[in-house]
Amino acid sequence: MFPQTPAAAAALSVARRFCSSALLNHCLRSYLWGAMYATAHGIDHDDELYYVSALLHDIALTETFDSHTVPFEEAGGRLGWVFGVAAGWPADRAARVEDVIVLHMRDDVSAFADPEAHLLQVATSWEVTGRHPGEFGADARAEMLGRYPRLGFGTEFLACFEDQARRKPDSAAAASVRNDVAGRIAANPLESAS
Hints:
about 190 residues, single chain
């Protein structure tokens, strides 16, 4: 189900060490939703790269890796680059982790241009605000939440974004807060299913 490589195992260890249980489950669900979407739409992608990016995409929302000046997706992307290099990847492959993490907060990445960033966008927008509900049926939702429950993820994530918005008013997180991410999180069908 998950990639079985040294880098994948290391990414899981990092996420387990620094993410809350709710954030860790979100990262795992994000990988799985994106993989499900890729299969349904025939999107060829680098599964190890996508997995590592999914597990680390919110690492800079944690207290340990939060930057007080850099938007969380940029700080997390830079940490992803460091992780990739430390895992022994060539610098250009490590740079792809950074790209995927940064780009997941944009609305304009096509599957053709960057399949891994596209998958992470689709998965995280479904996870956080309930976009693309038709892509993920009731049975898949029930199975996913049974295996990886939300554990109050919506409330925790909203608090992280509101904190980011206060400290970094020009960030994508701040734009999300201004665009009623709180209401969209509350309306997410995954919130009521958990």
